[in-house]
Task: inverse folding
């Protein structure tokens, strides 16, 4: 019995080792083939993305006519070009992918059974900014697989269709959010100012994650029209986190109209985290009218607030003498 | 042969064998089954990650507006050999917003002077909040004069690595804190990837652990590992395999189960507010990285919060492992003692349904299969030969048992090798593959028994509650091709010794299959 266990285990060990060796050999052979073919067709690819229009068209035609085996190796290389080139070169790459049927296959794969296929298809359609893919991508925001939902949201951002903004925001309005807020925020940023009306409509959404994401994106976009709404979030929101993000957003937008609310947020009546965020925002905002407030905060009992005020003052320009917190350095308390 | 041994000894051995046969068999069955489960889970996780890597898009983490900022906390005690290059490498990590907080823990060499010179440090009168308690008096705080470099250097009297990190936590400005050793080498994308769980699941993820690998023998250029290689000594080679098993199988498997209770102190990322909530690291605890992680679990469970502690599989932090038996022995004794102390401290969580999988699965597992494992191994190593000598065990049968046990141990090692080859294939040379397979066999003969003995000594020290003694970590240095500023590599044989705690000596990951 014991010998049988030994024999079986040893056999498994040998098989695993053999598998490792086979895997390494095949991987290297594959890598070598990719290298060889890439080198062989590099002039064509360069002409495709960087040549004059006529050369690019010739190169596209040549690559479109490659045999299936060569194309299978080159396809990932061509797809990777999407993230590296812009302008006409990129358009040539997209046309080439269309001509080889890659984009049509991706559209079909959006309804595939495999989550990996759906996500890969969504990723490609987003990178290619492919027309006709948006509806399928929106549907994938409700996919059962979290990665597929995330990739679809990212792809919608890359396509940058303003109509996607409310859909993306809706994906946050569940508990837990169906798509990570960071991905939605990034996509909304890519959509840009065209999405601001939808963002303003959602700035007081009942779900906190929606509010906090909207506030951050509005700040990053520098949406001056959003300052009153952001000030309202800073003053009134039920969650300190949203208020802190609103403060940071106001600092990023940089309109002096936000100064009174930011100054009020630094008062000792506010939570510590908000006071810190507001002090930092005053520094980001850069209005000279905030100097007295920041100077006063240097003496604050809350060390973090004082430090933040010091950093803010430093960011506002040359230190006027005693920028750093004036309190005597205190030994940190004993455990 | 039986005539050589007294009847009393034979009877005693027979009785012990009779009493222990079934429990030991059940024990090893459970142990090996648990390894199998972890291997399967890690394998599935690795395969899943591999299939989905093409659209993981870690670049998005670099540009997403909600990516949390990170404070890298670097305790440094007498790290003059590599501190400038190390800080330079950390500042150069690909991440949208991070700062480096170096806590000079009473260095007696030129650690601070070199930093001050390289970065134009000026003293600032910045006070540090007392968010977590500390014992070492802070002497001064310094920042670069350029006002742009996100670096803070805190000087304090020596009080040990944990206390230095607590000072760093107080000095940290950002919402995430990352513990990094001054002599660790991080892959350029390490921070991006280890922070990704916080970006994807900000409401629930409270801690994330990266992979730590042994750097010995690898090619290092300008502070980066450019080619992973097996070291030349067998002791270090075996540890390379241990680390592979621990991180590619153990941590990944536990993470998949939602039972990860150990994040390496050499490369771990935590939410700062949570670390503050649990009081930071405990300087009185010798296994402070395990203690912190368990403390976080307890705090989250006590509050009934929905939370996650996760491990990411790549990229990695590279650390130098002991190359001598003396240093290795000291390290293993310390680790096991730390394990014992932490498990004793959190004994209230053991088997307690209130703590869910942590209380019912992870911690009991650590007690059964980590804490007392060396005891059983040593007892087995003693009883086996005695049973042979007394004739209670037939040589053929004994040989069969030993072969079966070794074959299974080899299987676990080659499984880690397979995950490495399938997912990451860092070790590209055929020679390294051959050595790795050789290590899987060699480590069972002598090394296992030796480490079991050291761990048993650590357990005994914990039971006797002897005073903590920190050893000396003799560093051999990396096989670096750039030893000028700009390289993280330490020169050969840098001995790090601290009066209270040697920073580089206490944070190495514990590479059992955890």
Result:
């Amino acid at each position: 019995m014991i010998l049988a266990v030994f024999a079986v285990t040893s056999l498994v060990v040998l098989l695993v080792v053999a598998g490792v060796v086979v895997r390494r050999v095949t991987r290297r052979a594959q890598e070598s083939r990719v290298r060889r073919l890439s080198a062989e067709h590099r002039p064509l690819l360069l002409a495709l993305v960087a040549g004059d229009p006529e050369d690019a068209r010739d190169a596209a035609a040549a690559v479109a006519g490659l045999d299936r085996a060569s194309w299978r190796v080159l396809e990932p290389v061509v797809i990777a070009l999407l993230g590296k080139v812009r302008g006409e070169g990129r358009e040539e790459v997209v046309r080439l992918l269309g001509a080889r049927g890659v984009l049509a296959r991706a559209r079909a794969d959006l309804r595939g059974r495999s989550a990996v296929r759906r996500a890969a298809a969504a990723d490609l359609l987003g990178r290619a900014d492919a027309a006709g893919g948006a509806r399928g991508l929106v549907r994938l925001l409700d996919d059962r697989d979290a990665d597929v939902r995330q990739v679809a949201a990212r792809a919608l951002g890359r396509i940058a269709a303003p109509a996607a903004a409310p859909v993306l925001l809706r994906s946050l309005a569940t508990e837990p959010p169906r798509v990570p807020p960071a991905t939605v925020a990034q996509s909304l940023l890519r959509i840009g100012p065209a999405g601001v009306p939808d963002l303003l409509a959602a700035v007081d959404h009942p779900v906190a994650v929606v509010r906090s994401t909207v506030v951050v994106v509005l700040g990053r976009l520098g949406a001056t029209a959003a300052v009153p709404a952001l000030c309202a979030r800073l003053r009134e929101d039920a969650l300190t986190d949203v208020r802190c993000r609103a403060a940071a957003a106001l600092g990023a937008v940089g309109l002096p109209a936000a100064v009174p609310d930011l100054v009020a947020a630094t008062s000792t009546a506010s939570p510590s985290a908000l006071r810190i965020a507001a002090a930092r925002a005053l520094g980001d905002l850069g209005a000279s009218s905030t100097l007295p407030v920041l100077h006063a905060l240097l003496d604050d009992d809350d060390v973090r607030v004082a430090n933040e005020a010091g950093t803010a003052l430093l960011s506002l320009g040359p230190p006027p003498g005693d920028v750093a917190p004036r309190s005597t350095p205190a030994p940190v308390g004993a455990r | 042969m039986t005539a050589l041994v007294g009847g009393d000894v034979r009877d005693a051995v027979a009785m012990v064998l009779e009493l222990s046969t079934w429990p030991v068999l059940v024990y090893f069955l459970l142990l090996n089954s648990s390894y199998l489960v972890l291997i399967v889970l890690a394998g599935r996780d690795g395969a899943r990650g591999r299939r989905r890597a093409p659209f993981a898009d870690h670049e998005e983490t670099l540009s997403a507006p909600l990516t949390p900022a990170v404070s890298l906390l670097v305790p440094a005690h007498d790290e003059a050999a590599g501190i400038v290059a190390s800080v330079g490498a950390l500042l150069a990590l690909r991440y949208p917003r991070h700062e480096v907080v170096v806590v000079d823990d009473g260095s007696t060499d030129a650690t601070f002077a070199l930093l001050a010179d390289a970065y134009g440090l000026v003293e600032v009168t910045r006070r540090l909040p007392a968010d977590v308690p500390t014992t070492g008096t802070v002497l001064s705080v310094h920042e670069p004069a350029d006002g742009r470099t996100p670096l803070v250097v805190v000087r304090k009297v020596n009080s040990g690595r944990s206390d230095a990190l607590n000072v760093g936590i107080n000095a940290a400005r950002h919402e995430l804190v990352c513990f990094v050793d001054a002599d660790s080498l991080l892959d350029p994308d390490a921070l991006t990837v280890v922070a990704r769980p916080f970006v994807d699941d900000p409401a629930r993820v409270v801690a994330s652990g990266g992979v730590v690998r042994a750097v010995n023998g690898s090619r290092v250029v300008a502070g980066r590992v450019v080619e992973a290689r097996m070291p030349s000594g067998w002791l270090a080679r075996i540890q390379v395999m241990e680390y592979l098993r621990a991180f590619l199988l153990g941590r990944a498997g536990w993470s998949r189960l939602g039972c990860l209770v150990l994040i390496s102190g050499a490369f771990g990322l935590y939410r700062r507010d949570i670390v503050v909530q649990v009081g930071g690291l405990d300087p009185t605890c010798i296994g402070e990285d395990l203690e912190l992680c368990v403390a976080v679990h307890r705090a989250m469970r006590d509050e009934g919060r929905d939370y996650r502690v996760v491990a990411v599989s790549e990229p990695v932090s590279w650390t130098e492992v002991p190359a001598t038996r003396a240093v290795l022995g000291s390290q293993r004794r310390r680790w096991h003692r730390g394990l014992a102390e932490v498990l004793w401290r959190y004994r209230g969580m053991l088997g307690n349904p209130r703590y869910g999988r942590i209380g019912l699965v992870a911690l009991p597992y650590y007690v059964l299969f980590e804490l007392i494992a060396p005891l059983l191994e040593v007892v087995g190593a003693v009883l086996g030969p005695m049973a042979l000598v007394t004739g209670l065990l037939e040589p053929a049968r004994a040989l069969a048992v030993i072969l079966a046990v070794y074959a299974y141990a080899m299987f676990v090692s080659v499984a880690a090798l397979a995950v490495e080859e399938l997912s990451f294939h860092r070790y590209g040379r055929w020679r390294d593959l051959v050595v790795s397979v050789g290590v899987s066999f060699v480590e069972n003969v002598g090394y296992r028994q030796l480490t079991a003995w050291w761990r048993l000594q650590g357990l005994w020290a914990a039971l006797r509650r002897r005073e903590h003694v920190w050893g000396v970590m003799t560093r051999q240095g990396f096989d670096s091709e750039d030893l000028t500023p700009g390289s993280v590599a330490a020169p050969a044989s840098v001995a790090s010794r601290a009066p209270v705690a040697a920073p580089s000596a206490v944070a190495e990951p514990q590479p059992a299959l955890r």
Q: What stands out?
A: The first strand of chain B starts at residue 70 and ends at 76. Chain B touches chain A through 55 residues (CB under 8 Å). Residues 42 and 253 of chain B are 5 Å apart (CA to CA). Chain B has a mean pLDDT of 84.
